[in-house]
Design brief:
Blueprint: E1 2-6, E2 9-16, E3 19-26, H1 29-44, H2 50-65, H3 69-78, H4 80-86, H5 96-105, H6 110-122, H7 150-165
Antiparallel strand pairs: 1-2, 2-3
Helix pairs in contact: 2-3
Amino acid sequence: MTIVKRRGKWGVKVYERGTQRWVGTFDTFKGAKRAERDAMDAQRDAGETCASLAQRWPSEAAQLRGWRESTRRQYEQMLRPFVAMFGESDLEGVDRQAAKRFARQYPASVRFAQAMFADALKDGLVSSNPFLGLRPPRGHGRRDITALSEQELRELADTALEVHFDSAPRSGR
């Protein structure tokens, strides 16, 4: 939603499903604010569910942003846990606590839900982004990796040869 001042009057634009729509021009800021609020309420009443948004959003976002097909498919795949958890729930039904539970359970999918809700917020489908600022726990990287010793590596190689080539162990290397 956007209110702009033009030649002494106030104009209202709304975003619906990734496109801009002009609501109208108003003599007062108060009138423009009321029209903006009414447009937002109308969008929320349209009955968008979590599942319907997650189904259509990757394609719309890909088209607007010029994503490759592989990126669009990745977003669809990473939003599957979101659909599984929230399904036919109303978008406004996803509150901060639910978003935190989702982030703990599906840390890899959080940034995809964040991006989707950011666009939903711009389009006036939600009043806030409950995923905003959530950061999934970071991995430890290589800190938790213990390298194999030379002896363990030889044993692993011998076992692999035995299993895959039905030959006797060759420990004398």
